User: Which sequence fits this backbone?
């Protein structure tokens, strides 16, 4: 999995590509956290458009970033969710912790 | 219910093997001509079970994960994920949604996913000996 990070005013967008599982989530999260702590965005957009697979480790990844953003008074937005991962997202009730937006254009 | 095909796979409990294990089992189940959703269900459930072995069963060392799958003449696939690790002291508690013994980035949803995505799940465990998770799904295909 890879993450490309874009900045626009006080919004940080993380475009995720590939598969999110326990292995890849552990690798990617430090880099995302470093970017969050450096730029301190008001809004963190997680773009799942390039994600081909996600298990509950992806839920943990979102939850961890949500906790970090919350501690800074920020918000999470999830966008471009592929149909294939909507089932696991719904099971976890992720719509309760962040806004889900249908489609956002990549920067 | 008669077995028409079987496979066995052993991997080390390294997280890098999670992808391989779920794809291998899914590829085996593909002979039943599942829908994309059924493929995804199996892939995700197996990923959860294998991840549990890696994260929980062998905390101090690298152990073995024994995966086997059987296909039955009624179009059911039965998948067993077994480890010889630490075992689960309280299976009911472990299977509670959102419960995790670890905290950190663990969502505590592994069993919830397995239960939701598969038709049946059975968990057997002996502390100090290991755990076997058996998952079953009937493939309905493009009906």
Assistant:
């Amino acid at each position: 999995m890879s993450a490309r990070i874009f900045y626009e005013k006080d919004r940080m967008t993380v475009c995720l590509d590939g598969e999110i599982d326990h292995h890849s989530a552990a690798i990617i999260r430090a880099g995302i956290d470093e970017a969050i702590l450096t730029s301190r965005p008001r809004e963190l957009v997680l773009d799942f458009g390039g994600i081909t697979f996600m298990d509950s480790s992806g839920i943990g990844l979102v939850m961890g970033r949500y906790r970090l953003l919350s501690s800074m008074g920020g918000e999470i937005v999830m966008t471009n969710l592929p149909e294939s991962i909507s089932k696991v997202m719904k099971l976890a009730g992720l719509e309760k912790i962040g806004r889900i937006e249908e489609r956002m254009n990549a920067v | 219910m008669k077995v028409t095909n079987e496979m066995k796979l052993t991997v080390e409990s390294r997280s890098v093997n999670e992808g391989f294990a779920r794809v291998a089992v899914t590829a085996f189940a593909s002979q039943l001509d599942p829908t994309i959703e059924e493929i995804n269900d199996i892939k995700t459930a197996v990923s959860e079970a294998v991840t549990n072995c890696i994260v929980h069963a062998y905390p101090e060392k690298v152990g073995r994960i024994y995966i086997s799958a059987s296909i039955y003449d009624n179009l059911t696939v039965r998948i067993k994920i077994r480890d010889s690790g630490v075992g689960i002291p309280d299976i009911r508690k472990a299977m509670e949604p959102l419960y995790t013994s670890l905290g950190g980035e663990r969502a505590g949803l592994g069993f919830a996913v397995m239960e939701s995505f598969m038709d049946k799940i059975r968990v057997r465990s002996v502390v100090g000996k290991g755990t076997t998770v058996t998952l079953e799904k009937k493939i309905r295909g493009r009906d």
In short: The beta strands of chain B are 3-12, 64-72, 76-83, 120-126, 130-138. The interface with chain A takes residues 15-16, 18-19, 22, 36-37, 40-41, 43-44, 47-48, 51, 54-55, 104-107, 109-110, 112-113, 116-117 of chain B (CB under 8 Å). DSSP finds four helices and five strands in chain B. The CA atoms of residues 27 and 99 of chain B lie 31 Å apart.
